[in-house]
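Q: Two folds, back to back.
A: First:
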Amino acid sequence: MRDDFLLSDEVLKLQEQEDYYIPNEIDLRGKSDQDLARYLNEITDSIEVSSENISDPVVFDKILSFLKYFAHLQPRWLARLFDIILSAFRIEIKTTSDDLENNQKETFSNHRHCLELYGFLLHWFLIAVEKNTTTAKITKKKSNQNELKTFDWSNQKLKAFDTASWLLDLKLSKIWTMAPERIAFINLFTKPAYQLFENPVNAKSNRVKERVFRILGLCVKYYDHAFVAQTTIMQNLQYWEHSAEPMAEFLVHLVEKQNYHQLADEILRDISNREFKDIASKEVKDSPNPKTFSTFLIKLVELSPKTILKNMSLLIHQLDSESYLMRSTMIDILGFMIEELSKSIEDNANQMEQINGFFDILEEHMLDTISYCRQRVLQVYLRLFDLKAKFPKRRQAITVLAMRHLQDKSSTVRKYVIRVLCKLILTHPYSMYGGELNIDDWKKRLETLNHEINNSTTEEDMPPFIIAQAVNNDKNDTEKDDSTSQKEDDNKSQHSEGISDDNRSQHSEGVRDSDVQMDMESQQDENKEEEPRLTEDKVSKTVISAEKLQQLILMKTYHEDAIAFIEQIHTCIPIVTQLLSSKSKAE
C-alpha cells in the first residue's frame, strides 16, 4: 500500500511542477504499440482482481506515466486507459456505498485512500484532455497533425462526471471527517468542472453543462463549496465573456433542482455593490466588464425572474451606474419584472403598486443622456404592449413621451418612437365597437352616455316621500275609479223608482256634497303646484340600480380615454409626416 501519497501535496505538485516526479516512472515516448498494450494489460489484470490494488505503487505509477506523457500518445491508448480507470473506480464507489449503508467503519480508511487515488487519476486525465483540446486549435493551424489534436473526448468527459456525481451523492462526511481533507478531495472534481467553461465549445454543450451543474450543485449544497463557487463565478464573469450565460444557468439549476437560493442571492448582492464603467473609459482595466455582467443578468432574469425580483431592491442601484450598458440592462430587467408581476396581478392587488413604481422608473429614463438607454426603454415598451394586461393609464403616459421624442436628436430613438406609436395603435384596448378609431363616432357615443347619465338616478338618491307618493298615486287612482262607478249605479236606481220630495232634498244635499268635494280637489291641485321643482326633476328621471349607474360612469371614462388617445395620435401625425423626408433610412 502506498502510504506516502498525500492528496493536497500531490495536487499542488501537479499544478506547480512542469516535470511531475513519479518514483516508478516509465518513459513512454517512442514506445511501440506492443509495449503500450502490455502495460495496459498489466494494469487491467491487477485492478480487475480488486479495485483496491490501485494502491500498489507499481500499478499506480504506471498509470501516472501514461498521464504524464499524455501528449505523446495516440488517443486510442488513452481512451482505453480511461475505460480501465473508470471501470475500477465505479467498482470502488459501489463497494464504498455498500459499506456506508452497513456502517462498516473499519473499512472507511481504506476506501478513503483508494478513492483519493482514483480521484487524482481522474482529475489529471480531465485536465490533460482540456489542456490538449485547447492547444489543439493552435497546433492545428500550424500543421496537419490529427490524432490527439482532433479526437473528440466529449463521451469520456460525460462518463467521468457521471461517475463523480454518483460518488458525491454518498455521505462522504463519514469518510472524510476533517473539513480541509474533504475539501481537497472535492476540489478534484470541481476544478476540471470550472475549467470546462473556459472553452466556448463546452459552454454551448447542454450535455456537458448538465453534468457539470450537477457536480457543482452537490458540492455547493452538501460540501461547503458556496464561497469557492461564488469567487469562481465572479472571476469567470470578469475574464470570460462566453461564461456569462452558463453561470446564470448554473444558478438557476441550484434554485430549481437543488432548492438552493443562497448562492444566487450572494452573487447578486456582490454585483449590486460593484462599480461599472464604460468600455471606453480609461479606468476600465480595474473595473468589472459590464458587457459580461449584463449578459449574465439578462439570462438570469429570463430563466428565473423571481430570483431577480427578490433582490431587486439591491440591483436597482445600478440604474445610477456610470456604465450605460448596466443602465440599459436594468431597464430591460424592469420590463421582465413588470411581465412577471402582471401574471398574478388579479390575485394580488398589492403588486400593482410595485408595477407602477417600475413604470415610473422607465418613464424617468426616457430622459437618459445616452440615446441607447432611451432606445432600450422604447424596446421594453414594445414588449409590454403584447401583455394581456393593457395598463391604459401607462399607455397614455408613453404616448405623451412618444410625442415628445418624435423630435429626439437621435434618429434611432425616433425610429423606435414610430414603432411604439404603431404598436400602440395595433394593440389599443378600445375594441368595443370593432376597434375603429374614428373620433367623430366616439364623441357621439360619449354624448349619448352623458345624456343617459344625466337623466338617470338611483333609488338611494331619491327622497323617501317621493317613492311613497308614487305608490299613493297609484292607490288613489284605483279608489277614484271605484267611486265613479258606484255613483253611476245610484243615479240609475233613483230615476227608475221616481223621485219624492224627500228624495229631492237628499238630491240637493248630494249636489252640495259634490261641490265641497270639487273644492277639496282644487285645493290639492294648488298644494301640488307648490312642491319644489327639484322633486319634479327627480320624479322625471329614470330610476336605475347603483350597479348600472356605475357601469355607465366607467363607460364614460373608457370613451374619454379613447378620445384622448385618438387626439394624441392625430397630434403626432404632422410630425411623422415631416419625418418622411428624413435622410435616415430607418425613419
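A: Second:
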Amino acid sequence: MMIIRAATDIPENTELTIWYLLPAPENQPMDFRHWGFECCCAMCADVRATEPRVLWARTRQREQIAMALGKKSRQRAEILIESLAKTYRHPLEQVLHLGLWEPLTSIAVVYDSLKQQDEAREAVSRALAAVGFVIEGGVEGPLVVKKWGFTMDNLVVAWIILGKSLLKVAPERAMQAERYARMAYLISVGEDASFDATYGMSLKVAYEPPSEEGQVEGWVV
C-alpha cells in the first residue's frame, strides 16, 4: 500500500506521476535509458544542461563544507555555501536546489548551538526553500506553509531549529513551527505518538530560559 500526501492543492483530473528515484546529488546521473525512456523533469533536465565540471565542483564543495564544519571552521563553511549556491543558474521557481539542503541544515545546527538564532532562522529558511517549501510569515506574521517540499533527512530537526529561533521574537510562531515539526515527523514515520519521546527533550530545552553563557567552545567564527 502506498500513501500519497499532496504537497499543495491539486486541480481536478490532474495526472499524478511518481519519481522512481529522488534526483538528489548523490543519485546523479539519472540514467533510465535501459528502460526505454529519459527523465525530462526540470531537475534532471537542468543536470543534463549543466557542465560536468560544475557538477563536480558542487560535489567537491559539499565535501569541503562538511570538512570545514567538522573542523569547527564556520566562516570557511559560510564562504563555501555561498560559492555552492552560485553554481545554480536557475531560480528556485524553475529548478530546486537540492544540493544546498545538507550544507544549510548542517550550518543551521551550528548556529543553533551558538545561540545565533537569526542566522539559524535564515539558514533553515533557505534550506526549506531549496527543497521546494513555500513559506509565508514568521517573525512578521503567522507562519504558513503554502506548499510542502520534499521530505528530506533532518526535516524535523530543521523545523525544530526554526521554532527555537522564533521563540524569543515571536513565541506564537515558534509553536506553529513545532506543529509543522510534528507534521513532518508524521509524514516521515507514519505516526506522531513517539514524537515527544524522540524530540521532546530538544523542545523542552529550547523553551527553558537561556543560560548566561551561550557560546560553544572551539568554534572558529
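Q: And?
A: Confidence is low (pLDDT under 50) at residues 211-221.
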